[in-house]
Amino acid sequence: MPPPTLTDMLEPAAPSEELLSRLDAGGPRYTSYPTADRFVEAFGPAQYRQALGQRRSGAPAAGAVGGGTPLSIYVHIPFCESVCYYCACNKVITRQHRRGTEYLEWLGREVALHQDVIGSRQRVSQLHLGGGTPTFLDDAELSQLMALLRGAFDLQPQAECSIEVDPRTVSASRLAHLKALGFNRLSFGVQDFDPEVQHAVHRVQPAEQVEALIASARALGFDSINVDLIHGLPKQTPASLARTVEQVARLRPDRVALYSYAHLPQRFKPQRRIHAADLPGTAQRVTMLSNAIAAFLAHGYDYIGMDHFALPGDALAAAKRQGRLHRNFQGYSTQPDCDLIGLGVSAIGRIGATYSQNAKTLPEYQDALRSGELPVVRGLVLTRDDVVRRSVIMALMCQGRVVFESIELAHLLDFRRYFEAELRRLQPLAGQGLIEIDDDAIQLTPLGWYFVRAVAMVFDRHLQADRDRERYSRLI
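Given the sequence above, the corresponding C-alpha cells read:
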C-alpha cells in the first residue's frame, strides 16, 4: 500500500448519522497507552526517581526517548472560583486567592526535588498550564510561576507555551501580561454559547465577552488560539449547538476541540447536579456531532482527528498533512515525542518507558513534599508488549497509518503473526470502509479518521481483556 497522497488527505463529507450511531461506544482517548486507569500504586517515588536518573545518565530503556531530547512540562493549577457541573477535572473550588500563593510555594519544592535528580537547566520545548483554572492565579503569581520555571529549566526560545483560559477570569490587559510572560498559545473554555445550556451547567459567559477576548488575543499576536466546545450537555439541542458552532466558526479560532460530554455522576460529584432528563438522547447527540463536523468542514477547517479541527494554515493542520502529528496527555501536538514532567496535584508525567501521577488531593500532595519526597502515588513501567502496542496505537492516532515493516524493525517481531487476532478483528471495520489493509500496512480512510479511536481500541490489550467501558467517554 503506497503512502497516502495529499489528495488522499482531503477531507471527506461528514460521516452519516447511521454510521455514527452504529459505532457509538465508550473508549479511551489514548493520550497515552496504556491509559491512566491502568496505573498501579506499586509505582511510587522510588521508581520515578529511577526513571529520572536514567534520563539524566542517558541510560537506554525500552521505549525511552533519550536524555538528550528536550522536555515537555505540564503544570496543574487546581483552583476554580466556582464549579462547572459537567467538569471531570481535578479541582479545588475556592474564592480564597491566597491559596494560589501558597500553592506556588509547594510547586517550588517539587521543582527543587526534580532538580536534585535531573539537574538544572534541562531544555524544555513545550510548556502547558492546565487545571482547574490556571488564570485563577493573578498576574504577579503567574509571573512568579514563570520565573520559577525559567530559573530551573532552559525554556527554549521557540518553545510552545500554552495556557488554558477561563474567559470569565481574564481581560485584554491580562492577555497582554500572558503574552509578555512568553505564552504564545491560548485555549479558551467556551463549551456552549446558549444561555439556557450555560445556566444548566453553571457556567455563564456571554458570547460577546469571548469574541472581544479572541479579538484582543489576535491583536496581541498569539501564535494560536483554541476554543473548547462540548456536545451532549444538558438542555443542548441540535439547533442550539448549531448556533454555537456557527458563532465559533465566525470568530475563526485557529483550532477547535469539540469534546463529547461523558455523564458519569457516580465518579464525578459535580455532575450529580445535572438532571439526567435534561441530557440529549443518543439520536440527538449523533445529529449534533454530524452537523457540527459538517459545519466546521464547510467553514474551511481541516479535521485533525477525534474531536479536533484546525484552520489549514495552523501548525497542527500542517503537521497532519506532513505526517508530523504527535499525541501526549494534552492531546494532539506538533512537538516531537519527548519526556514529560508533570508538576502539581494530580499531574501526570512520562519519563522513558514509565508513566507517573502525583497525589490527587492537596493534603496528600503537600504531605509528600513536606517529607522531602516527590509526590508520585501511582504509575506504570511499560512492558515490551505495552511499548509495541503504544507504537501501533500512536501511529494510528497521529498518522492514520501503520507500516508493518517499521514496527517489525523497531521491535524485532513479525507484525502479522504478533497481531494475528487484531487483524481479524479489524475486518468488520475494513468492511465498513474505515480502513484498508494490505500486505504492508493498515491505512485509515478519510472516513476512518472520524473513528480512529474505534480502530485503535482493537490493539488495546487491556481493553480487550476488560469489556467494562462505562468509565470512558463515548465516541459520540
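Residues 4-11, 60-66 have pLDDT under 50 and may be disordered. Try to locate this feature in the C-alpha cell string yourself.
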